[in-house]
């Protein structure tokens, strides 16, 4: 029955199964990455529309009137005054459509799509027919098919009574008799703007090369706010045309040839002629060909829309644009999980601090051992006394101080040590640099360790920038001694 086929293709579109029915529990469940997107669309359509439209306007420039048309606040206006029928004529056409039947000439419904899906399913099996969608079928057989579809009948197209060209022509006829194009009047100007998305050169000048990535992203967003019946049928149609174009070596129908056949029914506003569209015809035809070629990518929500929808239900903060998510992602690998990342950062910071402290203590022990192995001298005794005064070298039974206390104690310790025992006067420094001794090597190691310890101690914190310690000499005014700043 048509209703069973409707259920089957809706499952294919949604790509996931909710097994509330016991008959479906044994079937595999396919994860749907757009689950939260669909949930937000159905439960909070205003929030969903605002989220998507804000990102559409980030990609394409829509002035006030065109944006109002996209939102359905005003009717479509075309150059030259052409536009969809309105007022009395619109009402008259609506009454005539109701007289035509359930499917043809009526507003798009899921029941109508279920009937038309019989045609699409049959054509998928007959894609090698030369001139498919271009060669017209037999008008008598087409009328029989039309009446059967309008009556809701389940047609046996495999009986051999109908030809592939009959079915293909009837599918085009169905699209041509819809009250508005499949992509709706509201989206007309948005598609023209998407066709104008071009790449920029290194100097920021616009080129003639289409920006395919931005075009795909804009189409993904635009398709999200289509009415569900339009989006469902568009996916089925583009997939059929994509498969048809893949067989162009047999059927002689390329993506562009198919675009010429279907652009008037999918993109062109109703009740307009080629003269009304003028230079826009090329854009529309190229846009239709682009959608056919890239149809397998267009019905996935962009990653940032998925994340926004997920955070709306699971997170503590809702982002409203791709830029917000890019900014968050640039801060590190935590991506969008703000609450979890904060907890993880605190744990990482503690572990990094402990690891840094451990390395510092090991380095200082090695330095102490080096000083201890120096020949006996007054300098060695003073260095050992200086080490013994500090709390930085921890013994097994001693608890480490806080990071701030350690930082200040280390700075005073090494500064005093260097002031009294390492640098001396300038002549002695020059001599030691020229003829290094074990004592000078130890002191250089102490200075290097001091700088590295200060850097490593705060390297795990993103809010602190540590610069290497600089050694400066200043004359003491009162004591007349050299001080370390």
Automatic annotation (TrEMBL):
Q: Which GO terms describe its biological process?
A: regulation of small GTPase mediated signal transduction; signal transduction
| Single GO MF annotation | GTPase activator activity
Q: What cellular component GO annotations does this protein have?
A: cytoplasm
What is the top-level taxon of the source organism?
Answer: Eukaryota
What SUPFAM superfamilies does this protein's entry cite?
GTPase activation domain, GAP (SSF48350)
Region annotated Disordered sits at 390-412, 453-485
Source organism phylogeny? Eukaryota, Metazoa, Chordata, Craniata, Vertebrata
This protein is called what?
A: Rho GTPase-activating protein 19
Please indicate if the UniProt record lists Flavoprotein as a keyword.
no
Briefly state the protein's biological role. GTPase activator for the Rho-type GTPases by converting them to an inactive GDP-bound state.
Q: Indicate, by first and last residue, each region the UniProt record lists as having compositional bias (Polar residues).
A: 390-404, 453-468
Q: Where is the composition biased (Basic and acidic residues)?
A: 472-485
Q: What is the native source organism of this protein?
A: Oryctolagus cuniculus (Rabbit)
| Keywords for the protein's UniProt record, in alphabetical order | GTPase activation
Which Pfam families does this one have? Answer: RhoGAP
